[in-house]
Each structure stands twice: as C-alpha cells, then as structure tokens.
Amino acid sequence: MTTFWFIVIAFLWTGYFVLEGFDFGVGALLPLLSRSEADRRQVLGTIGPVWDGNEVWLITAIGAMFAAFPAWYSGLLSGFYLPVFLVITGLIVRGVGLEWRGKVHSRREVALCDAGIVTGSVLPAFLWGAIFGNLLFGTALATVLGGALSLSVAVLHGAVFVALKTTGGVRARARRAALLAAVGAMPVALSTLPSVPGRGPLWTLGTALLAAAALAAGVTLVWGRREGWAFAATATAITATTATVFGVLSAAPLPGLTLAEAASAPYTLTLLTWIGLIALPGVLAYQAWTYWVFRKRLTAEVSLNA
C-alpha cells in the first residue's frame, strides 16, 4: 500500500503540473501575446473554463500526502514554508485577477487584474521548480535551475496551448513565443541531465532523457505548425520530468526519511484506497468531459461575446 499511494501521489502531482503548467504559461504570456483587449480576452479565454478545475489536482495531491504520508507532508510544508506561502499567495492573486477582470470597467482596475494574473502565474511556476530542485539536491544552484526549468517549460507549454486553441494574430504570436521559450528551456533541461545518474533508480535516467527528447520534439512540431502534437510532446516532457523527480524521491521523500517511516498505518491506507477507487474515476471523467466540451479554437469574436 505504501508504494501504491506514493505512485498515486506522483500521478496527482503529474496531473497538476501538466494541466496547471499551461495555465501558468498562458498567464505569464498575457502581455506578450496581446495587442488589444480582444486579444487579451482571447488569450484568457483559452483557460477560462478549466483553470480552477486544474487547481483541484494540487488540493488532491496535498490532501493525499497529508492522509497517506503525514510525516512527508509536514516536513515538506514546514521546511519550505515561505516558498509554499508565496505559491498560495500567487494562486489567490491570480484567481482574483481572473474572476474580477470581467467585472471591472476602468482601465486601471483591468490593468491591476492583468498584473495579478501575470504575477500569480510566474511566481508559482518558478517556485514549484525551486522547491523540488532544492528537495532533490539541496543546493542554491539546483534551486535556481529547478525554478528556471519549471518556469521556462510552463511558458513553452502555455504558448503551445494558446497556439492550439486560438486563431489569427494571437496564434502566430503564440508560436513565436513558444520558440523563444524553448531557447531558455532546452539549455536548462540539458544542464540538469548529468545530475540524474546515481540519484535514483536506473529508469529515472531514461525518463530524464525522454523529457529532453519530448521537449525538443515539441519545439520542432510547433515550428511545423503541428500544435496538437506539440502540446502532446510538451505534456510528455512534463510527465517524464515529474516521473524522474518522484523516482529520485522514492528512496527518501525527505532527507533521512524513508517512505515506510513517512507512511500512515496500513488501515488508513486501505481506507484511503477505497475512497480513491470511488471518487477518482468520477473526478477524472468530469474533467475529461470539460475539456471535450471546450475543445474548439477561440476567435476574437467568440471571446468578446463570451
């Protein structure tokens, strides 16, 4: 049960980083992809129906950690209290910006909402990478590289998503932004590869190489205007990166703490399993349905009338 719940938590974090990753990227790119209010509404319309649902993955992941691995939960959140606090603050500010933007009318108020969206996207995107980089390697350099990697990949992922979901000038600018983001993401991703061997199981080297290859494939595909396949490639890169991180953490999720030591009692894990088997399929089905309903591209006209 201990290994099973570690895999479940890794799956939940993976879902969060893949789905919230493009949310962060879209928010960070808002001022760069927009030339008018119609453009800004078109960009934000790509995540409007899904961003709050994507945050549920974080709540579920943290909740599962609390129930299944309370020692890991308490050690992670207390050891990284300030960055986690800043992440939560950023998510709140971004949520307020997204919800209130359509309800205010003055240019100053709209600009404040936009600033909140950008800040609340950039901050968590950088800090999550910094937290896990520090958790894995415990050095200042790893912290900065982890933050730079997660932010640059989120921007790339978000740019590809906007290109996939829009038309016209916004789509063209999103493709260019994706190529520029790759200039930052690829060197950072490649610089982290030498640190993987010896840190975790042998298969983590394979997932790290897969992440780098998928990232490169995503850049090539977006250059060829194959946005759907490019998005699948960047999502694969994030999935493989998260698998690598949790593969390394599988031996010791915190320094000096094994999974067995961090886990709850067998009865608690069994009860959690039954709850998960009942609840999780419904949550996944609902979110899949949401993405299916809002699968079409957005035009500026549709965004303005929404």
TrEMBL record:
InterPro entries (alphabetical): Cyt-d_oxidase_su2
Domain of life: Bacteria
GO biological process: aerobic electron transport chain
GO cellular component, one term: cytochrome complex
GO terms assigned for molecular function: electron transfer activity; metal ion binding; oxidoreductase activity, acting on diphenols and related substances as donors, oxygen as acceptor
Main localization, broad class: membrane
TM annotation in the entry: 6-33, 54-73, 79-98, 110-131, 137-164, 176-196, 202-223, 230-251, 271-294
Membrane topology label: Multi-pass membrane protein
UniProt key word Transit peptide: no
Location relative to the cell: Cell membrane
Family: Belongs to the cytochrome ubiquinol oxidase subunit 2 family.
Identification of the protein by name: Cytochrome d ubiquinol oxidase subunit II
Organism of derivation: Microbispora triticiradicis
Gene this chain is encoded by: cydB
